[in-house]
Amino acid sequence: MLRMAGPIETAIRRKLTSEFSPKHLAIANDSHKHAHHAGLRGATNTTESHFRITIVSDKFAGVPLPARHRLVYKVLDHELQNEGVHALQLKTKTEPEWEREQNK
């Protein structure tokens, strides 16, 4: 079954594509796994609150992992602060890192 992306996921994809020109971008909405957690009680957004993102971009070359994550968080600040995105699980790779991982 093909799942349609919601408005927050669509915005995330658009922003990451615009900022990082990724060679590969995968976004998985894991919100259904967390909908009943205590941290989301009373939340207005439980359908687009948790995302797993893999992004491969040359813009990560020479950038340490924590700084890569900060770059992504900065781009998605609006979604995190105002749209109820509660958590991001990030995999940020350069193209050579991604190719090595895929060829294991």
Automatic annotation (TrEMBL):
<comment type="similarity">
    <text>Belongs to the BolA/IbaG family.</text>
</comment>
<dbReference type="InterPro" id="IPR036065">
    <property type="entry name" value="BolA-like_sf"/>
</dbReference>
<dbReference type="GO" id="GO:0005759">
    <property type="term" value="C:mitochondrial matrix"/>
</dbReference>
<dbReference type="Pfam" id="PF01722">
    <property type="entry name" value="BolA"/>
</dbReference>
<dbReference type="GO" id="GO:0044572">
    <property type="term" value="P:[4Fe-4S] cluster assembly"/>
</dbReference>
<protein>
    <recommendedName>
        <fullName>BolA-like protein</fullName>
    </recommendedName>
</protein>
<dbReference type="InterPro" id="IPR002634">
    <property type="entry name" value="BolA"/>
</dbReference>
